[in-house]
Amino acid sequence: MLLYIHIPFCDSKCHYCAFNSYTDRFHLKKExxxxxxxQLKNDLKNIDKKIETLFIGGGTPSTIRYEEYxxxxxxxxxxxxxxxxxxxxxxxxxxxxxxxxxxKSLGVNRISxxxxxxxxxxxxxxxxxxxxxGALSAIQNAxxxxxxxxxxxxxxxxxxxxxxxxxxxxDTLFKLKIEHISAYSLTLEEGTKFYNKSEIKIDDEELxxxxxxxxxxxxxxxxxxxxxxxxxxxxxxxxxxxxQHKNYLGIGAGAVGCLNNYRYxxxxxxxxxIKNPLDYEIEELSNEDIVVxxxxxxxxxxxxxxxxxxxxxxxxxxxxxxxxxxxxxxxGQIYNxxxxxxxxxxxxxxx
Length: 351
Ligand code: SF4
Description:
Blueprint: E1 2-7, H1 29-44, E2 51-58, H2 70-76, E3 80-90, H3 97-106, E4 110-116, H4 120-126, H5 132-145, E5 150-156, H6 163-175, E6 180-185, H7 205-217, E7 221-224, E8 227-229, H8 237-243, E9 248-251, E10 257-259, E11 262-265, H9 270-275, E12 281-284, H10 287-300, E13 305-306, H11 312-323, E14 327-330, E15 333-336, H12 342-350
Parallel strand pairs: 1-2, 1-9, 2-3, 3-4, 4-5, 5-6
Antiparallel strand pairs: 6-8, 7-8, 10-11, 11-12, 13-15, 14-15
Helix pairs in contact: 1-2, 3-5, 6-7, 10-12, 11-12
The structure holds iron/sulfur cluster (SF4).
The site of iron/sulfur cluster (SF4) has 11 residues, from loops.
């Protein structure tokens, strides 16, 4: 069982961001945290397995003082396993030394920084709230404090990006001995400032392959289309849980939870969520939906999927792909050889 908690506050709205986050609702922080506690208490009552991973994401969790998380950690304590992976996302401008120390003392053992780049011009273009110097110092603080599982997000495929520029970002992370890198290609999402500005995005498959190779040469194993870890132990167990289709609780405005064949959605707007954090929309998943998800997610990561979930027609198409050497099979589990082709291969099998 996985647990996700959503913090929908941000200091600035990044021009590419379609996440449920707000820059003008800070006055609701306290009430929001109380609503989270209410939903958390309610949802935890319904689980039959202990929590293996907690992920505090957003938005920007570091916009909330660490003291404000105390009650949440008290509530979850009886429900989590001893070596629970507890990750918090944060942004360099708000993850102060005090915040990082405070979160560590509460139990956070994995930190994920939204770095995106160490190039100030690029950070400005993306409308990030931090600069390169701030990112470096926040990461160094986290290392000094004793976090030994750190992720940094890096975005690529932005106008004026070149392999040389991205390489500098990775070289900085290698010097810092960061354990995990999420390297994402920019997507132009509807409802964002960048949507309809096709000139902002570089569609260059060659660049992706160069990045994958460079990370590999420097000791990082790609275990998902955008995720790279120095060692198996540093892979995100939380994300892996999603890809393995484990059950998860989704706490907070715009979060999503999934229990067996049901997905549930708390209210998206902060005010509505605060009014009634237990007002969910529920969606029932068909067996077909679950197969689609398992194949799509399985091919995007090193987990693969069990071929026995496929029907006869799908199996036939799978065999074609195996014969063409596009996928491989080990004891009935199907693995992808090229994550960039994941969607294409999945759609072919499922068509
Ligand atoms: S900090 Fe993250 S969540 Fe907030 S606007 Fe930027 S990308 Fe979106």
